[in-house]
Specification:
alpha+beta, 11 helices, 11 strands, disordered C terminus
């Protein structure tokens, strides 16, 4: 099983070189560079964000990414299971306080804390797989984050799924971007014909908020749940490209995703884009749980075997290993999955944070890439922010 997972990870790492790249993302999403994100805000506000990390309260700040500065942005805590007061994940909203303000053509960007993935690579690699299979996915890169000159660790910069995203990746932006916002387990079940049963929870419109009525979404859900089986494809085809939707689900299954569209505890981690003309299409996000030991083993167990055929491949190797252990009188134990203790070691208390471990891990994984620019060439002068005077 270890050999199998290693080979699979190697195949994922090689994928970007084997598929045609999507439209070139902005330079801040270059995955071959360890970027530098420097946030400057009132220290009391930053402490309040940590203390109240479950809330979506915005705070004013300035930020520089690789030396490019933008002022008077909104910063808030973000995420669901990844929310943390120890290593905060944040959303940078560039036009929260200055309307129509953009940064590198973006309205916002997520700064993900990677606390749910000790490898720091699963989400990024999963997006490469979706892109390679022809599904638009948000761009990812890696960055150091400092807040008021205090280092907080290695993070992801993640492209927002919004109007600019669908305009660049899908070729139109007049449709509806809908975020699935997980709160309680839901399996795309029919809640009746009232759009208020679906919108704004769990389906939250991110564009056209004032005009979105949800009726097409309701019809899509009801088509997936009602009618005879032999008419299912025909009914769903009125609202989505069925082969494409099945391909999306197959990709998640191949990646052993347990927290996606068909999540083990209900749907999670996707957006829907509803084009004005016809199609509802899924867009992936937050695939931190792909390619983990138990799920990969489950996929191996589901591989069909002919009657009387002995297990082959990784399943055979694991069975032989268990058999040898039993013959020698050793107890057979399930593989140990890194958990809370491993995450604690990777993301220690900020007062004891040395700043070296995460960077060393990431630098080893990116060592075959080009050398990143010297930090001194792109580090702007930065001082303490005073209320009413948010400047670098």
């Amino acid at each position: 099983m270890i050999v199998h997972r290693t080979a699979f990870a190697a195949a994922l790492l090689a994928l970007p070189a084997l598929v045609a790249p999507a439209a070139a993302a902005d330079k801040i999403f270059d995955p071959t560079v360890l970027h530098e994100t420097r946030l400057v805000m009132d220290p009391a506000d930053w402490q309040s964000l940590q203390d109240n990390f479950r809330e979506n309260q915005y705070y004013a700040a300035n930020v520089s990414i690789d030396g490019d500065v933008i002022e008077q942005i909104g910063v808030r805590s973000r995420g669901n299971g990844s929310r943390s007061g120890i290593k905060p994940a944040v959303k940078l909203d560039f036009n929260k306080y200055v309307k129509a303000q953009h940064f590198h053509g973006l309205k916002s960007v997520a700064v993900k804390n990677l606390v749910q993935d000790v490898s720091m690579l699963r989400d990024y690699l999963a997006m490469q797989v979706f892109e390679g299979m022809g599904f638009p996915a948000p761009a990812y890169s890696f960055t150091r984050l400092t807040v008021n000159d205090v280092y907080w660790g290695v993070y992801n910069l993640v492209e927002a799924i919004d109007g600019p995203f669908v305009s660049a990746r899908i070729g139109e932006s007049s449709g509806n971007v809908i975020k699935y916002d997980y709160s309680v387990p839901y399996d795309f079940g029919d809640r009746g014909g009232d759009p208020a049963a679906y919108v704004p929870a769990p389906f939250k419109p991110e564009t056209n908020e004032e005009t979105f009525d949800g009726s097409a979404l309701v019809h899509f859900v009801q088509a997936a749940n009602g009618g005879p089986d032999d008419a299912l494809v025909a009914e769903l085809s009125k609202y989505t490209d069925v082969p494409r939707l099945v391909t999306y689900l197959a990709i998640e299954n191949a990646l052993a995703e347990t927290d996606g569209f068909l999540g083990a505890e209900g749907m999670n981690n996707f957006y829907l884009y509803h084009e004005r003309q016809h199609e509802v299409r899924p867009v992936p996000v937050g695939q931190e749980h792909v390619v983990q030991g138990v799920a990969v083993a489950d996929i191996e167990q589901r591989r069909p075997q002919r009657p009387g055929q002995a297990p082959s491949g990784p399943a055979r190797a694991e069975a032989d290993l268990h058999g040898r252990r039993e013959e020698r009188g050793h107890a057979v134990r399930e593989p140990r999955v890194p958990g809370t203790e491993a995450r604690r070691r990777l993301h220690p208390d900020p007062q004891r944070r040395s700043g070296g471990h995460e960077e060393a891990v990431l630098e080893r994984r990116l060592r075959e890439r080009r050398r990143r620019p010297a930090r001194g060439d792109r580090r702007p002068p930065c001082g303490r922010v005073r209320p009413g005077s948010l400047t670098f």
